[in-house]
Amino acid sequence: MSTTAVTALVLDLAGTFAFALNGALTAVRVARLDIVGVVTLGMITALGGGILRDVLLGALPPATFSDWRYLVVAAVGGLVAFGLSRQLERLATPITVFDALGLGLFAVTGASRALALGAGAGQAVLLGALTAVGGGTLRDVLVRRVPTVLSSELYAIPALLGAGVVVVADRLGAGALVPSLVGAALCIAVRLVGVRLRLEAPHPPGRPDADPE
């Protein structure tokens, strides 16, 4: 396996673990599910975006079902979150951080995989963002929340930025590792700063302010 392939796999599995933790903690904190529900929601959050990406690219079966490591890492992440639920269920910060980590890592690995399978620059950016937001969207739908990507929070924008870094670097002939790390770091930073400062994507002109929570 080439260095580029190893880098992509490591980042992809790290994103899978982070999103599994995020989905499972959401299941504990928001939906109050049992162990089956917690692990299931964690796995759906971790694997949903990658499955959608591979289906759209015609890369069948999706990597999730052709490489056992994805399923194992996602299941372990869900179980870890379940085991630590007593300590973490009242804390919002771990969910936000794991969500940002998964978002950044999946944005760059999704874009890299799209490029490797022959997608154009624009398509690769979009598929990178889809990989990053797809699992979280499925998570929110299953716990009956408006998906974060459809609200005004900075969610899709950081993913697009992270994927864009990878695509631009590829077009410039740069290596894979450094652009992937830079893209992931940029996505994570923008997401966390947005949450911290309550930054929002632009609203339609004339739209009344939302009611306070």
Automatic annotation (TrEMBL):
Location in or out of the cell: Cell membrane
Keywords, sorted A to Z: Cell membrane, Membrane, Transmembrane, Transmembrane helix
Top-level division of the source organism's lineage: Bacteria
Domain Glycine transporter as annotated: residue spans: 10-85, 97-169
Its membrane topology: Multi-pass membrane protein
Entries under InterPro entries matching the protein: Gly_transporter
Transmembrane segments: 6-28, 35-56, 68-84, 91-108, 114-138, 150-169, 175-194
Family per record: Belongs to the UPF0126 family.
Protein name: Trimeric intracellular cation channel family protein
Organism field: Actinomycetospora chlora
